[in-house]
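Q: Entry one of two.
A:
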Amino acid sequence: MESVNGYRKLKKNLERMCTISQNSNYKISIIVDLAGPILEMIEKLPMAFMMVMNTHPRMRSKLIRNVPFTCTIQDNVSMEEVEPLISVIHVVDDEWKKYVQDECNIPFDRYTQYPYNIKCYLQNEQSAKLVIYADHYMSDGVSAMHIFNDLCQYICNPNLIPMMEPLTKNIYTLQNSKLKRIWESIILKMSSSIIRYKLKSYKPVFDIDCKQKPFRFPLPSNPSQALFHHGHPDNMKNVLNTCKSFNVSVNSAVIVSLLLSAFYVSNQMEMKSNLKNNGKFKMVLDCAFDMRRLSRKSVNLKVGAFSATTPLHGYANRGLDLDTNFWLECQRAKKEMVKYYHLLSMTLGCIDLFFSHENGKPFLENQPGCIMSDMNISNIGKYPFPASYQLNNQSLQIKGCFAHCASSHMAAGCNVYFVGTNVFSYSMSYKFEESVSKMFFDTFVKVTESIGTIQKHETIRMVIDRILI
């Protein structure tokens, strides 16, 4: 987002993809599982949220009607403006899951509404789910965690003086300009036709839900469904220790777990079209990256749309060999991520070129269900702030943290989110049929929770036989 004559131009990637139409809905939510003095927290929430919104200027953005990809940053908000953005809803047990799913399918009015609000799903006086809802063009999972931490700091320390976050240049302009020029020249000539060709032959790994409408203008507001599950603390410790001993990242092990689970479910459901003659399972897999890591200038950025997605082409081309050693495949996945992490400039350029204005001819006309890939893995990582806060001499504790994002178009069939606190918290938004999606999610959770038990000699096929059969 860059300043032009007092306005802010939405420059690239998520900012444009999410705002190409008012019907385009990319609502992200961070669900924090809280225990402790909940009623005291709720009482102080409006003042704290006002201070947070006045700290981070992107939280006060609104689009300009009839001026494509342009927004303004509003003046500091008052208590009267903030109070309608906060609501408390009493729920029983897991009712909050349906509330979150339904709320995320309701788009923000980007011309009249701020891109953030908060709902507290109150289970009892000592337990609640605090949910930060945000429009994805001004937020990502890391942003919401920063906002939650700031909320707690202001709630627990009312005399804390807010420190204004500077409204810096768009993060994508911080890339190496020479590399950017090279990629843009290639993209202009090749990328659109290549992507069209790939998607023409693309066959989803699972059947798409019948409610999903194809990609065409005006853009449909396709719904997303959601699943959530907390892991076990002992399993998390075992996974972390085992991955460290084999010198692989947790993210790479989770990617192999995801592939393994997708193969198992497609095999169980007799969807064998992606198991080729050479016995390798092929799937179109994307991975989300935190763009803050690309530049030293951007590492301190807090609130904004600073994530990007890039495909891991190896699993669509080479595929997954079931007779490969599990840990060897994890090392390959790690190399695959590093390889494509450095090609993000091409991905960002593609998005920028394809979306010139709202009525432009879409390059994905009639793409089935608006789905571009089978799976997307978003490992948001470990919650980077304190797991408890002191409020009135009581401990406000974080028991877990989920992420969820509804995507109306240009999405994966399944978006898997992975957040660590004292446990792994799994969530998934999906556009595939409900029965197969639930089976896949349960399988993925079971395998990932069991990564710590996988031995040095075990192949992927052996892991399937031991854990799932």
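Q: Entry two of two.
A:
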Amino acid sequence: MEPHVLLISFSSQAHIASSFRLGEALACRGVTVTFVTLSKHISQIRKVYTDEQLESQRINLVCLDGVEKGDIFQKAKDLEESFKPYFEELLRNQKAGKAGPTCLMADRFLYWTKAVAMELQIGWYVFFSNGSIEARSHQYAHKLYSEGLLRISEGKILGMDNMVNAPGLEFLRPNDFSWSRWAYPVQTIAMGEFLVGAAGLVLNTFEELELPVINSLREELSSGSHRDAQVFTIGPMSSESNFSVKSEPSDALFTSPKQAAFAHISFVEQLEDEGKRSVEWLNHQPPSSVLYVCFGTVFSLDPRQIVALAVALEDSQERFVWVLPRDPTSAEDVLPPDYETRIGDRGLVVDGWVPQPQLLTHPSIWGFLSHCGWSSCLDGVNAGVPVLAWPQGADQHANASLLEAMWKTAIRITQKRGDGLFYRVAVEVTGKEQDTFVDHEELEAGIRLLMRGQEGRDARERATELRRKAKAAVKDSDGSSIVSLQRLVDHMQTLRV
């Protein structure tokens, strides 16, 4: 019997995309995949692929009824409730002797799935859609917790200062650790506990990008009580080869000798209006002349900060494409008066979905002003463009430090720490108000440095080299991520029930 993985995804855009692409890559190699998430995301997949196509590709879709509300951990808890009816069905099938999943793989936030796997008596893997830094952080935090150097007292987490001593994370600054660890102490410990006993950790990264972190992750596992746990680096999953205007061939993550004709599953068959408008505008710009500006789908700048950025982009005299969600506020309410008239053909502001991987690989793009979410970091690495880093929270500060300190492909636009989601927690922990506003002069200076300065040119050169490493990781049978992905499949074979 071939392996069958129950793949449970957290319900957010970036997580769904990387999880589904992972499922696709596993299916290419003979693994049956049951992909589970909320029905609204499943319906988007069904708009692109028929049941017959998915069945031929060994991918089963399971819809969970439920809604998304609250913070990220509340959403994870709600997903647990939505999963219960299907879990009961799995248990009934198992008791009836019907074939079912031989292993489970779940997003890092879904730590409740550990109990699911244990009750089904199957092994589990933890999927980190954001690479190895957070995996190593949770691993080390759990070690500190077990040694009494990290503890929870009266609802507060104590001992976080010890995190700066984590081997493999020496490039991080003390304030790179997310305030979410202070905001959610119980959940922070639970995520570390999720790793204990896991069959493996699956990381959306490649060996060459984060080798010191990955080595420390492996060393800790080999010295601990669960020495059979493995680390599998299978990224970058957010490959731009599916969108590239350069017409490059699809990478080897999604092909195999057994299924050479396997069609890459993508959520987008054709560009939406804003995507078309962006590509058409870029087609009329000089080579390597445009700054792409985007802050992802979760974090957003406040109105005052948007105005400061708008002024900085205008005054810099650089060409730019700015993805600026305008719901529920209209463009006229957010941007300075007559802004788009004043910038004319030098800039483009779009408010709908755009194919970021495609835009970043466009020949007209020079650099990327980014919040440094992991998907965006990988998109930048794949495209070979330097990053003007303006992290806003969560893991983004650590991701920015990876690119800035280890690879020198990023330049921080400011030393101020943005973290709007946990501002009050930051005030409580530090005992002082946080100054997060960046004025237009500082923003303009950063833009000019990336687009015109020697630092920007140096970062561009190093980004080009890093792109080659990313391509090599998913190219041909000897790419590091291809080898690791096959190791994962082979490892799943050993977990068959």
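A: Comment on entry two: The chain has 20 helices and 15 strands. The two ends are 9 Å apart (CA to CA).
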